[in-house]
Design goal:
This protein is α/β, with parallel strands linked by helices and about 220 residues long. Helix content is about 25%, strand content about 30%. The strands form 2 sheets. The protein has a 7-stranded mixed sheet. The longest helix has 13 residues.
């Protein structure tokens, strides 16, 4: 697939998407620049590539979705709000698009996916983009990747009913977790910050994500 893009995947189309994100309140220039140059059309089936720069979620198979660009930008911006992050844990690799965005903004990204076939395709896409600072693990998202913690930032791309305690323990003091929480139709995007005294929680906005499920599948 043409990484530079043509027609509905061209740079002009990408620039229009970035302008829409700015109009919706995304202001972090680092995030906007990375999303401008990252070929989102690479992360969907070719039949859907003409829709890659619409501000909408798109299916990626296995009942999973590629998040709406605004949500990717919003979550990434919230993760970076207090400054640069060196070491990030992503729970839910999915297509690898959010992973690719994080990999251009953090020194190291550790990403966990419970569906191996999605992870395999994501690995190929990241190699195409020459993003080599990403470590992948096929595992239950609730468990995270404790052997590599603690993390400056944790970003979760599926919604549990409540914030998993196992993930909280992997957050470094001063670190932030951006996570959707709640049942389908009543989810909130939440920012959890770990302090010396414990954890503080801030509600960001209503969202809609697939549920965070336990176990692994091929």
């Amino acid at each position: 697939m043409n990484l530079a893009g043509i027609g509905m995947t061209s740079q002009r189309t990408r620039d229009r998407l970035i302008q829409r994100l700015v109009e919706q309140g995304v202001g972090d220039l680092r995030v906007l620049d990375v999303m401008r140059k990252t070929p989102r059309h690479l992360f969907v089936d070719e039949a859907l590539s003409h829709r890659a720069y619409e501000d909408t979620a798109l299916p990626i198979g296995r009942n999973q979705t590629l998040s709406q660009p605004y949500i990717v930008a919003r979550m990434t911006e919230a993760l970076l709000q207090t400054g640069a992050v060196n070491k990030v844990l992503e729970v839910g690799t999915g297509s690898g698009y959010q992973t690719a965005v994080l990999a251009q903004l953090a020194d190291r990204v550790y990403t966990v996916e419970r569906i191996r076939s999605l992870q395999d395709r994501a690995r190929q896409r990241l190699r195409q983009l020459k993003l080599y600072n990403v470590m992948m693990r096929h595992a239950d998202g609730f468990s995270g990747w404790p052997e590599e913690g603690e993390y400056d930032g944790i970003l979760v791309t599926a919604a549990p009913a409540e914030v998993p305690q196992g993930l909280l323990r992997q957050l470094a003091v001063g670190g932030r977790m951006i996570i959707p929480v709640g049942p389908d139709g009543d989810q909130l995007l939440v920012c959890v910050t770990r302090t010396e005294a414990g954890y503080s929680e801030q509600e960001l906005e209503p969202v809609r994500f697939v549920p965070l499920l336990s176990g692994t599948i091929e």
